[in-house]
């Protein structure tokens, strides 16, 4: 495998953000790419995710909560974040041992946001199954980066 530059890595990560599986296809991992695309479509359809997005953008939060199939949507954060990390890793990024931690914590916090989305209000506003998980992502990523740095510092000091 040739050494990828940061722009190639970023391109594959951004395509994976656009649709899980695209980064894998660009990395030449066809089976994984089509598997992630199929999983994304399956979970998206079963969870009514496109309808949730439309309703959320139109500020119909209660309706979006009612349309959500939480049993299916709970799979989405882990599939999504794993696909992004996998594309990143296969593109040549994340060579350090703990590069997965921000992605893991990102998925975890998005999942927590999803769990609490039907009832948690932020500044008195119910955000629902799209906005609360999205706003939870930066918190998870930041915590993952901090924990990664702490673990690396601890490992390097021993």
UniProtKB/TrEMBL annotation:
Keyword flag Membrane: yes
Keyword set, alphabetical order: Membrane, Transmembrane, Transmembrane helix
Superkingdom classification of source: Bacteria
TM annotation in the entry: 69-88, 100-118, 130-147
Protein name (record): Uncharacterized protein
């Amino acid at each position: 495998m040739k050494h990828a530059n940061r722009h190639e890595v970023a391109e594959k990560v951004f395509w994976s953000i656009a649709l899980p599986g695209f980064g894998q296809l660009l990395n030449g991992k066809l089976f994984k790419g089509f598997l992630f695309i199929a999983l994304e479509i399956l979970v998206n359809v079963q969870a009514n995710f496109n309808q949730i997005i439309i309703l959320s953008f139109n500020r119909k939060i209660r309706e979006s909560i009612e349309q959500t199939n939480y049993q299916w949507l709970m799979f989405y954060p882990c599939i999504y974040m794993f696909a992004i990390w996998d594309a990143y890793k296969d593109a040549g990024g994340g060579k350090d041992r703990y590069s997965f931690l921000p992605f893991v914590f990102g998925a975890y916090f998005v999942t927590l946001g999803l769990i609490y989305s039907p009832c948690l209000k932020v500044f008195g506003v119910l955000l629902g199954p799209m906005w609360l998980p999205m706003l939870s992502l930066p918190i998870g990523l930041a915590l993952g980066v901090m924990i990664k740095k702490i673990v690396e510092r601890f490992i390097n000091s021993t």
